[in-house]
Specification:
Order of helices and strands: HHHHH
Structural class: mainly alpha
Helix content: 55-70%
Number of helices: 5
Oligomer: single chain
Strand content: under 5%
């Protein structure tokens, strides 16, 4: 089940923001953005942080928290672990890209 994507969609719609507008701010196509809302696995910490800035919300709201706490200080361990896992995955992806580019330069 796509809980985070559904929350993003609900907040976006409540604020009257279109998928096209979100896509423009995220520098992706509308269809790619639509897939983000349908498949949480496509979301990473970088995209999540951009989305919360666009929607002008606290990131905790996407994880079922009240969002009353400023910043990250009040988030529970589950939310923190999800964010760390996402960031770790993003770092690993970037390392793989760097290694690939190094191989290409050496060729």
């Amino acid at each position: 089940m796509n809980v985070i994507g559904q929350r993003i969609k609900n907040i976006r719609e409540d604020k009257g923001i279109t998928q096209e507008t979100m896509a423009l701010h995220l520098d992706v196509t509308q269809s790619n953005y639509g897939r983000l809302e349908k498949d949480d696995r496509r979301l990473n910490i970088v995209k999540l942080l951009k989305i919360v800035r666009i929607l002008d919300i606290n990131i905790c709201q996407l994880f079922g928290e009240s969002g009353d706490t400023a910043g990250f200080g009040g988030m529970n361990k589950e939310v923190y672990d999800i964010l760390v896992e996402s960031l770790t995955s993003e770092i690993q992806h970037l390392k793989e890209e760097v290694n690939f580019l190094r191989m290409m330069v050496r060729s």
